[in-house]
Design goal:
Layout lengths: L1 H22 L6 E4 L3 E3 L3 E7 L11 E8 L2 E8 L2 E3 L2 E9 L7 E10 L3 E12 L9 H4 L5 H69 L6 H23 L3
Parallel strand pairs: 2-9
Antiparallel strand pairs: 1-3, 3-7, 4-5, 4-8, 6-7, 8-9
């Protein structure tokens, strides 16, 4: 009986521990800012979101307040909206000067049970002469004229390098082609010279062969022609005598 009396409270304690450990909510608030960097004349909105489970169903009251550099900017206010298990309040201010720059803190206070949670954000205010506007307008950054010129140079330089490389490649290709054509012409000239030499050598050989055939005397053909003419004249003379001429 004693064991049973001890066992039941222990199990109830363990059940309570595990159930509330699994289903307990994070006690962290959130402060969202429409823009962390603003100019004079802009409007900025601070949205303060409670931890999960901070609603009228769980607490007797929930109030919000916004501090600027640890000074109350907006007093205790009730939640303006409930989104699921979250209570939300927001504040919009117009930036009139550098006095609006600094740290902003949202404090959420509950009663029944009593709790206090907070969240912070930093706001930077710049003038029209400032170049870097950080996350103003959704995090966009305005570029100065120097930055634009630098960007143009960075774009033009690679293009110029590519054009120069193309022209150099084209010139090298042209010179290689000219060298190939020159080498080809020189080879043709050498072959033509060689062929002309072989042709002249053949003619000289033919003349030498002809001269050897004639016994080395170039006048033999002429002598043969003279003998033929003498024989022809003798035959004509005999024919005239027979005819009594």
């Amino acid at each position: 009986m004693l064991k049973m009396a001890t066992f039941i409270p222990v199990n109830l304690f363990l059940l309570h521990y595990f159930v509330f450990s699994v289903y307990s909510y994070s006690e962290t608030a959130t402060l969202n800012v429409s823009a962390s960097v603003v100019r004079i004349g802009d409007n900025v909105t601070f949205e303060c979101i409670s931890p999960q489970g901070y609603t009228g169903a769980d607490y007797a009251s929930i109030t919000f307040k916004l501090l600027h550099n640890n000074t109350d900017l907006f007093g205790n206010e009730e939640a303006k909206s409930i989104r699921g298990d979250y209570s939300i309040n927001w504040y919009t201010i117009e930036i009139s000067g550098q006095q609006h720059a600094g740290n902003y803190t949202c404090i959420i206070t509950t009663t029944g049970p009593d709790k206090t949670v907070s969240a912070g954000a930093f706001l930077k205010v710049i003038t029209d002469t400032d170049k870097d506007v950080g996350s103003r307008g959704g995090g966009k950054t305005e570029s100065s004229s120097e930055d634009k010129y630098a960007l143009i140079v960075l774009v033009i330089l690679p293009i110029g390098a590519l054009v120069a490389a193309f022209l150099i490649h084209k010139e090298i290709k042209r010179r290689c082609q000219a060298n190939r054509e020159g080498n080809g012409q020189r080879i043709k000239d050498k072959e033509q010279t060689k062929n002309d030499g072989q042709s002249n050598s053949g003619e000289e050989t033919l003349k030498l062969d002809k001269k050897e055939t004639n016994g080395g005397d170039d006048s033999i053909p002429g002598q043969i022609d003279d003998k033929v003419n003498e024989s022809t004249q003798g035959l004509l003379k005999d024919e005239h005598q027979e005819n009594g001429v």
